[in-house]
């Protein structure tokens, strides 16, 4: 009897706090009261308060952020459906290309609410500080700044990158790194170095749209492998593909992939690297979101498990510092010379001034402080946006629960055509990324990707409501 009463009590406490979360008293992304204050406010024991929080965690209403306590997630929306199948397709056609270019144009159109391109709002970035560093560097080293840089890239920057690689589990030397024009060029150079036209390349499904464009440009076939919204690439499906045909490379974004926001578990990363090494398949790892984790630890890169030089690690500062600086890099393992050669053919060198600025900024020590703020901002915005989608979108909508990055992948009810919805949304002053852009086989017609790296305001909330209304009308 006593036990039943106690059970009822923690359920009551959980229900009460669930209501407070749903009615917005505790905003998504905010910290929930400490156990001590719950125990005081509700006149319950600490054990009961703890049990109530366990229930709220089970209901996905709150989640623990190591070292910083519990915080509010979003309200009562369906989690993403697990990945279903894999299948192969031919290289994508140019139709996606024009859609992407249109979206990039829309992203620059100041009048649109920018949920489309996965670009951080400038107010989140240390633009003034970085530009000051740039001005100081070019003033103090005019000759260096105007000269061609070496093909491999600016050495002080490579030194800083090698130091930071330790945080992700890799001991790299500056000589193992090549700087690039963003992560996009890093992936392009890597694919150019390890494939030839007509080869088959494994990609995640859904995947980063820019990657599909690169495959198309290099005349490669995309073999799409099912990718789970929580755990990433399906290893059984990959194994099956490897047994079936010759795979020239596997390109993936294991840390907070785009558009799913998945985070591949550590053991699975190790298994993946081992599986690819056994088949001698190079892995091109795109880690642009790796620094944007919401939990305590940075995910380890695939590169950190690589004993064979078969992982080509690509990344950039586009999501964290300055997309327009176009500073990225690749650590290509045993393909160093081939990638360097490709870089020389396509661009000779990376612009020197922006490399100088990023190197000096990193050396100055402000980057980690900035990252801590940025992670917390993105975590809050992802939660806030999730709550609005939950409130305004039709029932049956599913949404991812990313633990890093700044994009959400939304599955709307069957019947919603996100391409048609995109045109209607643009007329109403809102951009987003329609689902079919993210797969070579043009699936995901009722999905959309939302960029959450937008300062929250009533206008942003109203834009989500408008999208929800459109989805409801079409479903
Ligand atoms: C997974 C992924 N890779 C690469 C890029 C492009 O990065 P960059 O601007 O550094 O070329 C993006 C941008 O959206 C991305 O999402």
Q: In CATH terms, what is the fold-level topology of one domain?
A: Aspartate Aminotransferase, domain 2
Uncertain ranges: 86-94
Relative helix content? 40-55%
Bound molecules: pyridoxal-5'-phosphate
CATH homologous superfamily identity of one domain: Type I PLP-dependent aspartate aminotransferase-like (Major domain)
Strand content: 5-15%
Helix count, DSSP H or I runs of 4 or more residues: 16
Description:
The protein has helices at residues 2-22, 35-41, 46-58, 94-108, 127-140, 142-146, 155-165, 182-194, 209-217, 235-244, 266-278, 336-347, 352-364, 367-392, 418-427, 458-474; strands spanning 62-65, 69-72, 87-88, 113-115, 178-180, 200-205, 221-228, 232-233, 249-252, 283-286, 311-316, 328-331, 398-399, 407-411, 430-434, 447-451. It has 475 residues and is of the alpha/beta class. Strands 3, 5, 6, 7, 8, 9, 10, 11 and 12 form a nine-stranded mixed β-sheet that branches. The longest helix has 26 residues, at 367-392. It is globular, with a radius of gyration of 23 Å. The N and C termini lie far apart (48 Å). 50% of the residues are buried. The chain binds pyridoxal-5'-phosphate (PLP).
């Amino acid at each position: 009897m006593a036990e039943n009463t106690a059970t009822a009590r923690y359920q009551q406490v959980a229900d009460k706090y669930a209501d407070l979360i749903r009615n917005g008293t505790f905003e998504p992304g905010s910290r929930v009261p400490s156990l001590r204050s719950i125990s005081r406010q509700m006149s319950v024991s600490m054990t009961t308060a703890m049990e109530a929080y366990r229930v709220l965690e089970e209901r996905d209403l709150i989640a623990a952020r190591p070292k910083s306590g519990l915080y509010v997630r979003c309200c009562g929306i369906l989690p993403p459906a697990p990945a279903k199948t894999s299948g192969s397709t031919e290289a994508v056609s140019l139709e996606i290309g024009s859609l992407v270019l249109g979206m990039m144009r829309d992203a620059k159109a100041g009048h649109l609410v920018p949920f489309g391109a996965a670009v951080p709002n400038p107010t989140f970035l240390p633009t003034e500080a970085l530009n000051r560093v740039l001005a100081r560097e070019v003033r103090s080293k005019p000759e260096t700044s105007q000269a061609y840089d070496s093909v491999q890239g600016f050495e002080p920057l490579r030194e800083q990158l090698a130091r930071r690689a330790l945080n992700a589990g890799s001991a790299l030397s500056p000589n193992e790194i090549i700087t690039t024009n963003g992560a996009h060029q890093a992936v392009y150079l890597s694919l150019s170095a390890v494939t030839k036209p007509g080869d088959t390349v494994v990609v995640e499904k859904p995947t980063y749209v820019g990657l599909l464009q690169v495959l198309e440009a290099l005349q490669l076939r995309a073999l799409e492998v099912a990718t789970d919204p929580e755990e990433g690439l399906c290893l059984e499906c990959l194994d099956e593909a490897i047994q079936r045909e010759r795979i020239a490379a596997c390109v993936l974004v294991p840390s907070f992939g785009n558009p799913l926001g998945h985070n591949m578990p550590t053991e699975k990363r190790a298994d993946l690297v081992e599986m690819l090494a056994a088949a001698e398949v190079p892995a091109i790892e795109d880690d642009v979101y790796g620094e944007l984790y919401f939990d305590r630890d940075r995910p380890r890169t695939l590169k950190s498990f690589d004993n064979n030089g078969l992982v080509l690690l690509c990344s950039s500062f586009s999501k964290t510092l300055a997309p327009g600086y176009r500073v990225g890099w690749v650590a290509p393992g045993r393909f160093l010379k081939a990638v360097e050669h490709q870089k020389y053919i396509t661009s000779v060198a990376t612009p020197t001034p922006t490399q100088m600025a990023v190197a000096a900024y990193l050396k100055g020590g402000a980057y980690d402080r900035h990252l801590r703020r940025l992670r917390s901002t993105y975590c809050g915005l992802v939660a806030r946006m999730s709550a609005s989608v939950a409130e305004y979108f039709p029932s049956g909508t599913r949404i991812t629960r990313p633990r890093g990055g700044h994009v959400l992948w939304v599955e709307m009810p069957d019947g919603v055509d996100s391409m048609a919805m995109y045109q209607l949304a643009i007329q109403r002053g809102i951009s987003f990324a329609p689902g079919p852009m993210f797969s070579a086989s043009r699936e995901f017609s009722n999905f959309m990707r939302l960029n959450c790296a937008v300062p929250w305001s009533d206008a942003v909330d109203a834009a989500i409501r408008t999208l929800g209304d459109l989805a409801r009308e079409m479903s």
